[in-house]
Protein 1
Amino acid sequence: MTQKKLDVVYKREFINFPKRIGPAAVREFYNQMGIDYDNDMEIMTYIAPDVAAQKAASLVSDKQKENFKLLDLGAGTGLAGAALRRAGFLGNISALDGSAGMLKVAMEKGIYSDSTEHILTSSNPLPYSDHSFDMVVSVGAFGKSMMEPDCLQEVLRVLKPHSYMIITVRMYSEVQDYKVRFYDELDRLEAAGLMKICSSEKFPYYKWDEISDDFKVKLADQYGEVLELQKLYIN
Ligand SMILES: C[S@@+](CC[C@H](N)C(=O)[O-])C[C@H]1O[C@@H](n2cnc3c(N)ncnc32)[C@H](O)[C@@H]1O
């Protein structure tokens, strides 16, 4: 791969990302992105979907993998759904995303049982009843201008009691305010006895070492975390 290619992709996916506006701008951004997204992610060695799927698979038995009902929250073009299938999840996987363009690409892959175009905010809750899912996986959708930390409790609502939510996040340098709000909310939910943080592991989300110096990329920003959260009781 040429350095130029990596630079083009980095610019398209990160420099052009709407920084201070809300979910509507993000939807516009991703609606245009659907066609290039999978190829761009491959060029940047994006491994978050597989990291999340492996974490999900490590928590359940082979029998559970056969019929677990999963939600891929912020499914995008279906990279996490595909990773979950590769990890052996054979049951229903529902896709939810705010971008019709991304969901269209996802549904063409034939991975998901159903899809819902929906922007999750604190005032626009998930269109599912309580305790609908055996597990929720959300890869790269909690972040600045995307899903806000105050939506985490709503996600717990649609999980069955004692079930897991696997989230990957990348708290890069420019989103330290979001990072504080995110971890404060996890602390609040844990202190309230609604969920437990079972594990949190750092991993290389992308591989950016060869991006041109012109972009002044901070290499620490290519790392993210996979979080394993367990809903503790009926709420
Ligand atoms: C970085 S992409 C990740 C997509 C996919 N999970 C993956 O790993 O490739 C983030 C996705 O979250 C969706 N998204 C962001 N904020 C959202 C919100 N508040 N409600 C619903 N979807 C949202 C975007 O439309 C986009 O498809």
Protein 2
Amino acid sequence: MGLRRKKQRGEKIAAPVHTTGEPHGGTGDWAVELDGVRRQYGRGSGAVHALRGIDLKLPRGSFTAVMGPSGSGKSTFLQCAAGLDRPTAGTVHLGGTEITGMSENKLTALRRTRLGFVFQAFNLLPSLTVEQNVLLPMRLAGHRPDRRRAADVLARVGLGDKGRRRPGQLSGGQQQRVAIARALVTSPDVVFADEPTGALDTTTATEILNLLRSAVDGMGATVVMVTHDPAAAAHADRTLFLADGRIVDHLDRAPAARIADRMTALTAPVYVGAAA
Ligand SMILES: Nc1ncnc2c1ncn2[C@@H]1O[C@H](COP(=O)(O)OP(=O)(O)OP(=O)(O)O)[C@@H](O)[C@H]1O
Ligand SMILES: [Mg+2]
């Protein structure tokens, strides 16, 4: 699974690609692979085409940001990629396993063991301790809770001494660190993050983004993050731009100002066209 392989020093990780191209080997080389993914809501003249054919291959150990105007399909993309929603057409592979067409039970099991999730609202269980929250994915998957592993990931996110606290006794940034520890505890193929810094102040947000970055660089994690914030996207290897259900552009290792410029062009195409 994704996190097992530690990135060697100086080893080159292939840049994520979003075009259909030849993978380096079998499908198993990619952490995430979408082929011709479409998602339509409703039918006939009232149909909404939220995704209009997404082709995407993300290598293991990569950090990808997904940006786009409101309604461009970011949440739909994340949900289809994470097996929380089913595409109308196309296929999704996670860690080499095709999830399209999987039964609901198998999908649930896969999500618990092979995917990690980080949400804007942290989504921790307030009645459980920090350690119990981190161990939850293992418990839900019916595995024996590995307390040493929980201690290890909590130490990695800088909360080695907070295992016995309740989430309500922690700051927002610390709660998001717990959520990241929980997302990493099973060494998942992919961590999906939906606006993970949306509820945090700028300084705390930067800490959380650095943490996600170090999970990729230090633990070989694969992170896919939806964000509205160009400063957040600037921590990723690649930023994908969605517009009207399609990936229309990407920037690699771009500073926040360039990402913001590209977003402005996407959100005001008529104005930009008129000004050109
Ligand atoms: N359950 C649904 N039923 C009908 N239409 C939907 C549904 N969910 C999303 N849509 C539509 O699909 C399109 C894409 O929505 P989506 O939520 O993926 O956008 P988004 O990029 O995440 O937007 P935001 O930045 O506002 O969160 C929009 O036009 C939206 O109205
Ligand atoms: Mg959304």
